[in-house]
Amino acid sequence: MTDDRLTELYRAYGPVIYSRCRRLLGDHEAAEDATQETFMRVYRHIDKADSGEARNWIYRIATNYCLNEIRNRKRRPAPADHEPDEMLGEDLAVVLADRDLVARIIDRSPQKLRAVAWLHHVDGLDQSEVARVLDVSRRSVINWLAEFADNARKFIQRGAA
Amino acid sequence: MSHLSSFALDDLASGQPGDTRALAHLESCARCRDDLEATRGARSQFARVVFPRTVGRLRPRRRWWPIVSISAVTAIAVMLWLGHRDVAPVDDIAIKGGPTFRIFAKRGDSVFAVHDATQLAPGDQIRFVAGSHGSAYLLVASIDGAATATIYYPFSGERSGAVSREPSELPDSIVLDRAPGPERVFALFSNEPIDAEAVKRVLREIGARGAAAIRQARSLDVPAVQASVVFEKVTP
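ok -> C-alpha cells follow
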C-alpha cells in the first residue's frame, strides 16, 4: 500500500517537482537526482502526505534540498547585465523582479530567509501560498520577507557605493 | 498583475484551464510565456524519461541485518554467517598489495558472492565489504544499462567517505532496480576525497557508449586505486 501511494504521489507531483528542480539547479541531470532524492524523503515520511497538502509539503522538501545543493556547490548566478543605479526605497519591487539579482541576494542571505525569499520572489507564490508550503504562519512569512527586503536594500546600496 | 507563480504555471502546463486574468497576463508577458514553455518541456521530459527510469529506485535500501564490523580475523566468521556450505570461497577483489572489495548478493534465503558476469535479478539485494589497508577514503559508484550513474557509498554522497582499514560492511544494502543489462560497480580508494559528480560524469560517458563499453571498462580515468565488478541483470 505504501509503495502504491508513493508511485501515485510520484506520478502526480513528480512533474511539478522536476520542473521546479530544473529551474533551481539549471540542468536536467541534477534535477533528476534532486527529484529522486525528494521522493525518497517523501517515502520515509509518507504518513505525512495526506491528499490536501501533499503538493505543498513535497514542494518544501524539494526547495530545501535544492537550495542546500546550490549552497554546497557554491554556485553563483551569472552576474546581472547591470547593477541598479538608483536608490531603491521607492520601488524595491521593481528591482526584485530581476530574478538573477534576487538569486544573488538570496545566495548571500541567512539560511532562514532563503526558502521564503525564493518561493515568493522567484517562484511568485503569494504570502499565503508560501506559508502553506513552509507550514508556517503568514505573519512569519511577512516578517521574513521584510527582513529579506532590508537585506536586499543593503546589498544593492553596497553595490551602488 | 505580477508574474504567474510556479504553481499557476504548472496548473496551466498540466492542461488545467487558467483563470481569465492569468490568460490575459500570458498574452502580454513574454517572460511568463517562456516560463510556461519551459514548464511544459520539463513535464514532458519527466513523463517520457525521468519517471520510467527512476520510479523503481524510490524505495529505501533495506538492511539484511544490523551492521556488523568484520575484522580480518573474523573473515571466516563471515563465511559461517553467510551460512551456506556450498557458497564459493569468498573471492574478494583484491588489489595487489592494497585494499580489498567484495560484493555479496541476497535472493530469498540464498546469499552468494558476486563476480564478473554473475547474473542478478531486479529485487536482489547487494551489499559491499571493503577494507582500505591504508587509503583513507572510498567511493563506490556504478553505471548501469540505462546509462544511469549511482553513488552507492556514501549513498548519494557528494564525495568519498571514510573507510576502515580492515574489511567491514559498508552501510546500507542496495535493492537492484529493473534497468536491464550490465551494471559495473567501481570501488575507488584514495587518500583525498574524490568528487562524486566528477565520477558520475565519467560513468555516464561510458554508459552512453552502450552495454559493451560498460562490460569492457575496468577502470576509470580517476586518480584512485580501483577495483570493479560487472554483473548482469536479467529477468528470472
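Residues 24 and 34 of chain A are 10 Å apart (CA to CA).
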